[in-house]
């Protein structure tokens, strides 16, 4: 797939890359590694759906927080966030806010409500930043997800 997310155009095949290499990059490099070719403001989604240019499903992914602030935006306490990619004319676009920054959600419950309000009834979720714990343990106890170190 050809993309122009970075200033240097190149071909990207994410199937050959280690997932941790993809996620330990800044936002632009992460978008390029994921195959993102454009951005879309969340306000444009309804119009694109009306034109029939919006894909049927979205991709929800775990990302390093880009926006700083108090409360949940405290990057020390909550370094990870959820982002959304949508398909427009078959190409992946990252959802941005009206202020021109990547849209971030603190939890999947609020994100699920937002996705449904935008007309999405199913989506893919990927979390490449948190470990799954020890899958071989037979203790029956829930493993605590520990985030990896920020890039």
Structural description of this entry:
By secondary structure, the chain is an alpha/beta fold. It has one domain. Helices cover 20% and strands 26% of the residues. It has four helices and seven strands, in the order E-E-H-H-E-H-E-E-E-H-E. Strands 3-6-5-4-7 form a five-stranded mixed β-sheet, with helices on both faces. Strands 1-2 form a two-stranded antiparallel sheet. A hairpin with a 2-residue loop joins strand 5 and strand 6 (91-96).
Biggest β-sheet description = 5 strands, mixed
Strand order of the largest sheet: 3-6-5-4-7
Question: Alpha-carbon distance between the termini?
Answer: 26 Å
Structural class: alpha/beta
Tell me the number of helical segments per DSSP (H or I, 4 or more residues long): 4
Q: Which geometry do the CA atoms define?
A: globular
Helix content: 10-25%
Poorly predicted runs of 5 or more residues:
1-24
What is the number of E strands? Answer: 7
Percentage of β-strand residues: 25-35%
In N-to-C order, the SSE pattern is: EEHHEHEEEHE
Mean pLDDT: 75
Number of domains: 1
Summarize, please:
This protein is of the alpha/beta class.
Please describe the structure with a list of short key phrases separated by commas or semicolons.
single chain; 151 residues; alpha/beta; five-stranded mixed β-sheet; two-stranded antiparallel sheet; 4 helices; 7 strands; globular; disordered N terminus
């Amino acid at each position: 797939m050809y993309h122009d997310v970075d200033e240097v155009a190149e071909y990207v095949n994410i199937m050959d890359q280690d997932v941790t290499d993809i996620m330990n990059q800044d936002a632009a490099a992460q978008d390029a590694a994921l195959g993102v070719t454009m951005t879309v403001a969340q306000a444009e989604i309804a119009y694109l759906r009306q034109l029939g240019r919006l894909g049927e499903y979205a991709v929800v992914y775990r990302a390093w927080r880009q926006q700083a602030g108090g409360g949940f935006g405290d990057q020390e306490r909550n370094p990870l966030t959820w982002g959304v990619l949508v398909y427009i004319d078959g190409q992946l676009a990252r959802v941005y806010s009206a202020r021109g920054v990547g849209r971030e959600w603190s939890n999947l419950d609020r994100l699920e409500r937002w996705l449904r309000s935008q007309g999405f009834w199913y989506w893919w979720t990927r979390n490449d930043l948190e470990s799954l714990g020890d899958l071989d343990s037979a203790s029956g106890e829930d493993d605590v997800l520990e985030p990896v170190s920020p890039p």
